[in-house]
Structure formats: C-alpha cells, structure tokens
Amino acid sequence: MKLFDVYPLFDVTVDHGKGCYVWDEKGQEYLDFYGGHAVISIGHSHPRYLQTMQEQASKLVFYSNAVKNPLQVKLAEKLGPICGYDDYQLFLINSGAEANENALKLASFYTGKKKIIAFTHAFHGRTSAAVNVTQNPKIQAPINATFPVDFLELGDIKGVQEAIAKGDVAAVIIEGISGVGGIHIPTAEFMQELRKVTADNHVVLILDEIQSGYGRSGKFFAHQWFGIRPDIITVAKGIANGYPFAGVLISPMFAPVYGQLGTTFGGNHLGCALACTVLDVIQEEHLIENARQQGEYLMEGLKSMNIPGLKELRGLGLMIGIEFDHPYKEVRNRLLYEQHVFTGAAGTNVLRILPPLCITQRDCDIFLNRFAAAL
Ligand SMILES: Cc1ncc(COP(=O)(O)O)c(C=O)c1O
User: pTM for the full model?
Assistant: First the structure.
C-alpha cells in the first residue's frame, strides 16, 4: 500500500529530538524553531514527560469514557487555576479541529441558531464544521457547506454588529492570534467590543487558542493580553507536547447534557497524565515567562537586522511572523538545508517562528545568526 500523498514534504527525516533541537537519521542537528507546527511546548524528550509516559503506559493507556477517570479530574483541577478559568468545565478530545467542531456544536445547541461569524484567513481545522469556518475554499468540500458563515475582516466591529443585528448568529469564532493566516494580532479595543456585542446579543464567543494558547504568546492564552473572557476556549497542540490531545473549556453558562458530546479516545489515561506533566513543567520551569522574554529578545534582534524585502514583523511571545514583500521559499530552504533551522510558514510570504517554549537566549542568538546568513 502507498501513502495517500497529500503532504508536500521537506527532504529531511527527523529521527530524534531533545529540547529545541532535532536530529535527522544521519546525525545532522537542526535548531527547531517550528516546534512541529507549534506542538512542542516543553521541549522534545523532556525527562519528566518520558517518565510519565513510561509510568502511565505501564499502568493503563486507555479505558473508555464509560468509567470514572480520576486523571481527567486531576487535569481539569490543575488547568483551571493555571489558565485563569477555574470556574469553567473541561471536555477532552483528540485534535484541534475536533475541539472547534464541539465548540461550534455547543454554541448551536445553546442558541438554537446556525450562522457563524469568522474572520478573513481564519484557520480552524479540516473537519466538517471547523473547515466551514476556515477561509480556504481549496480545503472545503461541497458537503462542508452545511451552515452559513460570514467572513469579516479582522477588526471590522461594525460588520460584526450589523451581522449580529440580523438575529440569526449562533457564535463568533476567532483565533487568539491568527496562525495559518500569517500572525495577525487583533487589537484589544476590537476584542473588547467583540466581547461586548456578543454578550449583549446572546451570541457565543469562541476563542480558538489551539496555536496561540498554552503559554505561546507569553500569557497562558493570547486573548488574556486583551482583557476579555470568552464563553468557550479551544486548546490542542502544546497541551500534551506532541501526544494527540485537545480540550474545550466551557463557561458555566452551558449546562452539560448526557450524551450530547462524546468521543472514544478523548481524555484517555495516557493523554491526561502527559497533559498534567506538561502543566507541571510549564509552571516549574516558568515557561510562559520564558516565552515572553525570549519572544521580546527575538523581536528586538529581528528589528535590529537589515532584512531585505521585509514588509512587517508581527508577534507576541514565541509566535512571530516575518512578512516579506516576496516569497520566503528560498530563505526558508536555505535556513533548513544550509543553516539547519526549522521554521514554519504562512501563505507564500510569511515566515512563522514557533519554537518550543523552553528556548534559551543562546538558541535565539543561534537563530538570529543563522537567519542573517540565510538572507
Ligand atoms: C488556530 C488553529 N485551529 C485549529 C487547528 C486544527 O488543529 P488540528 O490540526 O489538531 O486539527 C489548527 C492547526 O494548525 C490551528 O492552528
């Protein structure tokens, strides 16, 4: 059998990793400023993570959601105070798209409505409802268009007010910082007005923090920079440092209904144990403060460089976009194949920097030197 060939691949085979470095099968070291698409939070092969994996796997990897699972309760009790949402409820699933799928369903159940407002270049995943609120027609199949979506410009509060005034909107979904769309940061003023107009009109506000959450922006959630509290928050990627796992944080205004949501694998024992260890390490190693500090250091370093064709530098914490006025492809290839640095990308012109949250100033210096050499 052949693989279903949907991924354009780099000619690199990653064999193992440690901290913010990975090695290929020939032993070549790479600086990982991509984090496997913002997934690696506490670093590759963290010893505490490996210990938890071994201990929990030797006890129990999985049992169904038909029995009590104290590890789910432990995770919820740990996550609540750390992220500032102790009064919210946690529903566990396996991937980011699934988190948004469930968030959108909850909003629709709650309001009895089905129109959703999303924003230009939004990316919320590839499953049915999640891809329908993703602004990329290339990845939407005809069967995905099952409910109406208004895509508005980020910052267009008037557009949001007018759409909501029609009375048929169930929810607004927005990324804390748009990732795949190219690192666009909403303003605090826009987010506060968005919170107000949704709350005043009983429209559910969903914050997709799948990429921007879990400390990456220098706060637990990116929306915490803007002083708002959404009704639903979706998390994935960094939550279990590479083990497939995700969550929906749900405001107390939603009453759970038996059987309304459910999953076979979501909240499994191994994933919960790993997610607890990730939170412990984030706290003990002060990784959120580190993300903020190293992010500021990187930004300063990038600003002081003479980057040919630079259009704009955007970012918060360790979620940084370098937008060129021309395609980044050659720079990114030189970074990977000559300088041995992994980076992310958005569209054709934005290089995305998404390293593990454990990077040091030395790693930032190495990156800045290699980036300069690749330009
Ligand atoms: C903001 C955002 N939402 C949702 C997703 C989808 O997550 P997953 O690929 O785990 O389904 C992604 C993935 O890149 C994302 O960046």
Answer: 0.98
Q: What are phi and psi of 58, to 5 degrees?
A: -75, -15
- Kindly state the helix (H) or strand (E) to which residue 352 belongs, with its residue range: strand 350-353
Three-class DSSP labels, 263-292: CCCCCCHHHHHHHHHHHHHHHHCCHHHHHH
Does residue 96 line the site of ligand 1, with CB under 6 A? Answer: yes
Rounded Cα distance, 324 and 158, in Å: 30
The best mutation among 124, 131, 206 to test binding of ligand 1, ranked by most ligand atoms within 8 Å of the C-beta, falls on 124
| Amino acid letter, residue 142 | P
- Selected from 3.30.70.1230, 3.90.650.10, 2.40.50.140, 3.40.640.10, the CATH number assigned to the domain covering 60-284 reads 3.40.640.10
Mean pLDDT of the chain: 98
| pLDDT value for 52 | 98
> Would you state the pLDDT for residue 82?
98
Counting ligand 1 atoms within 8 A of each CB, the residue from 34, 121, 237, 352 with the most, and so the one to mutate, is 237
Is 121 touching ligand 1 by the criterion CB < 6 Å?
no
Give the residue extent of every domain in the chain: 60-284
Cβ(102) to ligand 1 under 6 A? no
Residue to mutate (ligand 1; options 7, 40, 208, 211; most atoms within 8 A of CB): 211
Q: Is 211 exposed, middle or buried (0-12, 13-18, 19+ CB in 10 A)?
A: buried
Q: Given the DSSP bridges, would you call strands 204-208 and 169-175 parallel, antiparallel or unpaired?
A: parallel
**What tens digit of pLDDT does each residue of 66-120 get?**
999 999 999 999 999 999 999 999 999 999 999 999 999 999 999 999 999 999 9
210 CA distance to ligand 1 middle (Å): 6
pLDDT in tens, 302-346: 999 999 999 999 999 999 999 999 999 999 999 999 999 999 999
User: According to the model, what pLDDT value does residue 208 have?
Assistant: 98
Long-range contacts of 55-61 (CB under 8 A, 24+ apart): 55/273, 56/269, 56/270, 56/273, 56/274, 57/270, 59/269, 60/269, 60/270, 61/268, 61/269, 61/270
* Residue pLDDT, tens place only, 109-152: 999 999 999 999 999 999 999 999 999 999 999 999 999 999 99
